Amino acid sequence: MKQALVTLFCLLLAGSSVAVMPGTDLFVPAVAHAQGFGGAQWRADLWILNPSTSQTATVTVYLLLRQPNPTPTFQQSTIGPGETSYFKDVVGSGLFQQSDASGGLRITSTIPVVATAESYDANITTSKGTGSSGQFFGGVPAALAVGNGDATDLIGLDQDASADTGNFRSNLALVETTGGGNTVSFVLDRLNGDGTLVGSWACDGTNSACAPLGPWEVRQLNLVLSDFVPPTGANQRIRIRVTGGTGRLIAAASRIDNVTGDPSTIEMSGGGRVGTYVCKLARSDYETPLTLTVDQGAVTALDATILFTDVDVSSCAGQVLRLSGPLQQPAYYDDDGGFGFVVSNPNVGGAGVTLSVSGTISVTGLVSGNASVTISGVAGCNGTKGWPFTGAKLQ
């Protein structure tokens, strides 16, 4: 029996982590040993877990300052199987011996590890004495960074008065994840709770007040909502659109209670990811891998193998049909991960084939949806067959 071959594309959306995730290249966007608003004394602690039961991890921790860091300073250590290393005041006495430094961390490892950090004000006065108040950041894998053509949202920002005089203020932290000579141009869009665009703030070379991110640069935009008009607002959303450059970025925000100094972490969500991925059609008789390419926020090309046989249309003796190469029109995905496209070749050796794909990608990168193939022009083999598809893996 001949096999009918059809090339197909599905797409993948990257999103923020919904849990602390293991990786070999992780980023923490905000750490410090420095003074802050209202007498705050910002410190940061770091934990690194080696989840392996048999392998030792060789871990390198880089200090990324609030500047381009083409050759950042680093410290290296080993972590045994099942062990957790704890670095109290990691920027200061814990690892880097800095007395006044702010930025982020890059953590690389020979095997996947889990990292989490607490950024906190160590100078909180209460009726019980002086304590601390802070927030946790999970180490974000570099694979979840967003690049040119992608976007990510941070929700729940608040600035109800100037500086730190009101109830809340909000800061935004960014880190470039690829290093080398790479840069990232981006635009910040501020949206109200009803989705109305308040304004945009470009960091792409056109705005002297906000340059593109440099290699491994960490940047904190304090009182970020104040860069827009009006400078105050509650329940605000910041969308970061990457508009140029060969680098990638990870973002996080903080909503800070001005009375207590207590910050809450806001993680990025709904981003996209450039790359080549493999999905598969969920049919029981044959493995049918689907290769996909995503670039500039859209599906740009397709390649897959689909078997269309007498299992699908009983009288079908089998035909070899193929659709491959770049899409004539990129299939852009929406903010919720929804997508759809139709591709067709009206005549391949007398046979026509049309492929229709629609689905949704979750913020954790899971693909769900359906693909259907219609064949015409071949006696006994005309018909339509559909399959659900699932799974995605970066090649």
Question: Would you give an account of this structure?
Answer:
It is a single chain. This protein has 395 residues and is mainly beta. The chain folds into 3 domains: 19-143, Hypothetical Protein Tm1070, Chain: A; 145-269, Hypothetical Protein Tm1070, Chain: A (Sandwich), CATH 2.60.290.11; 275-394, Lipocalin. The protein is 1% helix and 54% strand. The protein has 1 helix and 24 strands. The protein has one helix at 90-94, and strands spanning 23-35, 41-49, 57-65, 73-79, 84-87, 101-126, 129-138, 140-141, 151-159, 168-176, 185-191, 197-203, 218-221, 233-244, 249-257, 263-267, 275-281, 289-295, 298-304, 325-332, 338-348, 351-361, 367-376, 383-394. Strands 1, 2, 3, 4, 5, 6, 7 and 8 form an 8-stranded antiparallel β-sheet that branches. Strand 3 (57-65) and strand 4 form a beta hairpin. The radius of gyration is 25 Å and the shape is elongated. The model is unreliable at 1-18 (pLDDT under 50).
